[in-house]
Amino acid sequence: MIIVMQPAAKEEEVQHVMTRLESAGLGVHLSKGQFRTIIGAIGDEELVRNLGLEALPFVEKVLPITKPFKLVSREFKAEDSVFKVGNCTIGGSQLVLMAGPCAVESEEQLLAAAEGVKAAGAQILRGGAFKPRTSPYSFQGLEEKGLKLLARVREKTGLPIVTEVMDQHTVKLVAEYADIMQVGARNMQNFYMLRELGKLQKPVLLKRGLSATIEEWLMAAEYIMAGGNHQVILCERGIRTFESYTRNTLDLSAVPVVKYLTHLPVIVDPSHGTGNWRFVPAMSRAAVAAGADGIMVEVHPQPEKALCDGAQSLTIERFTSLTKELSQLAAVMGKYI
Amino acid sequence: MIIVMQPAAKEEEVQHVMTRLESAGLGVHLSKGQFRTIIGAIGDEELVRNLGLEALPFVEKVLPITKPFKLVSREFKAEDSVFKVGNCTIGGSQLVLMAGPCAVESEEQLLAAAEGVKAAGAQILRGGAFKPRTSPYSFQGLEEKGLKLLARVREKTGLPIVTEVMDQHTVKLVAEYADIMQVGARNMQNFYMLRELGKLQKPVLLKRGLSATIEEWLMAAEYIMAGGNHQVILCERGIRTFESYTRNTLDLSAVPVVKYLTHLPVIVDPSHGTGNWRFVPAMSRAAVAAGADGIMVEVHPQPEKALCDGAQSLTIERFTSLTKELSQLAAVMGKYI
Amino acid sequence: MIIVMQPAAKEEEVQHVMTRLESAGLGVHLSKGQFRTIIGAIGDEELVRNLGLEALPFVEKVLPITKPFKLVSREFKAEDSVFKVGNCTIGGSQLVLMAGPCAVESEEQLLAAAEGVKAAGAQILRGGAFKPRTSPYSFQGLEEKGLKLLARVREKTGLPIVTEVMDQHTVKLVAEYADIMQVGARNMQNFYMLRELGKLQKPVLLKRGLSATIEEWLMAAEYIMAGGNHQVILCERGIRTFESYTRNTLDLSAVPVVKYLTHLPVIVDPSHGTGNWRFVPAMSRAAVAAGADGIMVEVHPQPEKALCDGAQSLTIERFTSLTKELSQLAAVMGKYI
Amino acid sequence: MIIVMQPAAKEEEVQHVMTRLESAGLGVHLSKGQFRTIIGAIGDEELVRNLGLEALPFVEKVLPITKPFKLVSREFKAEDSVFKVGNCTIGGSQLVLMAGPCAVESEEQLLAAAEGVKAAGAQILRGGAFKPRTSPYSFQGLEEKGLKLLARVREKTGLPIVTEVMDQHTVKLVAEYADIMQVGARNMQNFYMLRELGKLQKPVLLKRGLSATIEEWLMAAEYIMAGGNHQVILCERGIRTFESYTRNTLDLSAVPVVKYLTHLPVIVDPSHGTGNWRFVPAMSRAAVAAGADGIMVEVHPQPEKALCDGAQSLTIERFTSLTKELSQLAAVMGKYI
Predict the structure, then answer these.
(1) Nearest to B136, CA basis, from A203, A166, A221
(2) Chain B interface, mutation test: which of D2, D30, D47, D73, most B Cβ atoms within 10 Å?
(3) Do both A112 and A258 map to the same domain?
(4) What digits encode the pLDDT tens for the residues D277-291?
(5) Which residues in chain B (203-232) have CB-CB distances under 8 A to chain C?
(6) pLDDT by residue (tens digit) across D178-227?
(7) Are residues D103 and D252 in the same domain?
(8) Interface contact B255, partner C, CB < 8 A
(9) A278 in any annotated domain
(10) pTM summary value
(11) Distance from C-alpha of B52 to C-alpha of A305, rounded to nearest angstrom
(12) What ipTM does this complex have?
């Protein structure tokens, strides 16, 4: 940490800060510049954060030097993390396609979607049993009945399933059914739930919050890893900006940034990212070219009849033609589907 | 709802949309303009939302006409809602001051804060027992022990308490202690928790999410009211923007907007809104002048030693001098403290 | 500046950075922490900025310590700047009301507006002769004819005028007529125009750009001051966020921040800030309570017939009742109108 | 346009709106729904915009149905626009690589960059002679001398040049030298300059403003086209969000959106989009996969010595290896370099 003093800070005020740092067990490094006195604190930055030095009127600002995340960082683990789910590996040279409907609606609908996306090349089935909805008057998901349908369709198709968990106390229930536990954007900082997920030994797909910085997203992953579960898959799904032609702004630069900072796999969700089926194929291709380890796409046998997010769902035909394009792109990127 | 067809939409495509609307029980109103055919759907917009018409390639867009919230709106209830908490009324001509430390740290700290803010004029004590923290390595709150301390200090000072609930399953526990249940910004769309709060008969202070639109915020209030609990207090606490001199951007225009759209009281939190004690007094005054029903301010006996958010906490002295200013402003606004 | 090296940076790479700093005439301060080597550069930060050290793969980041603005800062000039315009002073204890129509449309309209706002207490008349419009098909202003009308109405009413300049080469023309030169949000970084304005000895009202950080806004003021014109008035007018109930999000916290960082007066424009006449009075009051030196409000004799921005214009009646409220608030703030 | 009346609007107020629409020559379509009366205005939406109906207290909102842009839209021209610059075509099946230094610094630097990027496959040389800089104390470009150097290097290498114009009155000067006139992000709404560019018969590369919506960006293009110059190339370069790991957030979804709405070519600038050379290759690939017609990349022979934006500049080596990757991706996309 670097503590920047106010220009008018007095000698005893500088001393006060140094004393507090030292009594917290930190090394201290004083530097009097032309315009400012700055104090370098040597040691664990977490200790400095807890000192509340910014509350002092003679302190101008406190600048962090190291990053607040540890276990997720490349410095903790240099090589890429690769997780196995069913026959599929996430984070290596396989490009993972997770596809399926926004919400589980019925066995018929789910099976049709699952068979369609499997035939097109998808390795993992997505589908929501618990649905976070903005309006209390909207369809809220089939809940446990939906989980059972997912399990039945997995049995029939062999596709592992990824499905959302919405609450600390349903973690156990969802974990009985899911192959990958999905944390939705609205729950990225539901810290109690993250801690509960940290106790599992099962992959967690952690969506980036609607307005989460990359650092906050990685800190949420840190919560899960700090609990002992190191199988975290990051998922970029768009951030909120002023642009309204798309539902969110898909931040694809998060892909190389996250690959640079961490060893975790990163998946892109172009369906929520754009909110419009027309733009999903282009953004899926872009995600692969940016270096994503996979994509997660909403596919519905009849988008027009979907109970949820039909506007951003691909038909099976469109998804099939997309996977052909992705397959060629994957080859250029040294990957395979 | 207004359904705008693509310019090239064919007759049978227009017919397809009309048939779907009619079979959902909606009235239909066709209008062929110079450039576009548009279809007006007459009836409950929620029905139209569920039809997924935007998934159809020949539909350009679907525009809502009415607002999605009902119970929170002025159309449902024209006069201001006023709630009684202890001796204090929220939403009427009393200006409510909620003040206290970010986190409950010890009985000594909490009591010092409570006595200080009470003497300065605050009517309600704030203090967090459960703390949502970005880092798993930061202080996470005293939890139930903190709730007990809050109750003890209430007994000693007579101040009702507002404290945060972080999870559906601690709603009952927190409700045993709190006079007002606080929903934090990160939990604004924790829908399971909102539903649980809807079953109480106790005021809920609902903070606006970090990047929530006003409409989403009101829909979260709608969840609580739809459950049967009509005592919702809205709290603006800043939204996330690109500006970095302040921790968030306090959106004070939300105050008149919310007053125009709803009958619910609205409180402003300038501490999280700015993240810097220097700017808290100015924004507290501005909140009152904008028409807020009260403010919620972090006050700590020794901000420099706070375990959480010291940089944005006022000392008791500064808070005391602020309440004098607010008292004069309240008078101009036809209110009293 | 603080140069943070990559964790794996080698001895000779650290040396390379130090040598470059020294050969640019900067002092160097080396600090080897537990996790990172950091190098403090002592001297003018502008010199470090020009070294492009972030281009080096072994440099992790370069952190500025001092602020990039000089002449606008409180460190350059501690006491508030106060400018005289006609009989009115801006930046002192007078609360300045600038009011008038968005665009100058005709002598009749302008005179009606001017007489109305003057009677209500406004000291300065606003009105646009050059109008930056999003669409090439919208009304673009009366240009020089509008300037002449402004001058005629000033003669009749005695009100000084503030009007927008849109281009480097019309600076001279506008300066012949205007008492205050207004720089619109879209032109905040029109650097050639800023330089031209720096050559005048006339107040410049500098609106904050739609998505300008406070620092960029102050750097734009620095351009004008660096040219020799020290009469800069800052004007907050809302920034762009995701919220759509208001046209922009009025960032009132910019008022105390700017007052803390600089000696310049700051004015608030709640008309563009909200885009809706309903919310203008509340935000005008809030601006005054936040410590603004004045407000700038759109007032039109018949908003419904305005050629531009009618939706955000107050009628003369509404403006008159607003000024009464503001007058009482000003008194509480130790100011007068 | 759809005019939505307030729920409490009276019969004569509905009539007032209808009369105003009719007297402006618009057709009127009345629809009384369950909750609202709405009025459809049939005819040119520009006429409705000018009526200022939102200023009426009994009007709730005015919703546009058609888009405000005409000449740039696919409805005006269905097939892709393709422009010829030197031997290169923009907007067709050739993938265009514009590369070169941020600023022209010297003939030696520019020639080294030009020869390097040409050898790597770039077809167009970029380089700024006029530099918009946030600080008045930063290097502001070589101005006309820089233009002359660009011309000299074009002569030596055969590469056409794209360079920025910053002001209405330098349009003529820059047009003497440039093959493509670049409008920077800060000037996207410099309407006087856009009108001047509309009088040329030369391609204009129009960068998206820092916080411009796609609609505003297209309206800026409309200004140029409305003047008679139909050769507009759009350039996405990142928008401002809260994320700080990257300089801006590159909005790649703008590529398919713009391709859907307009017939104009679209280029992506990953250098400004990310602000960090490490992330430029990934985002260049993503741009191509998203369907961009080309990219614009900053390349410097010695980024560490660049007078401007060294941190985001590629070395010639890195650019060369990038073009190899892009060449393979282009083939998958049915394009060639």
Answers:
(1) A221
(2) D2
(3) yes
(4) 999 999 999 999 999
(5) 211, 213-215
(6) 999 999 999 999 999 999 999 999 999 999 999 999 999 999 999 999 99
(7) yes
(8) yes
(9) yes
(10) 0.94
(11) 6
(12) 0.94
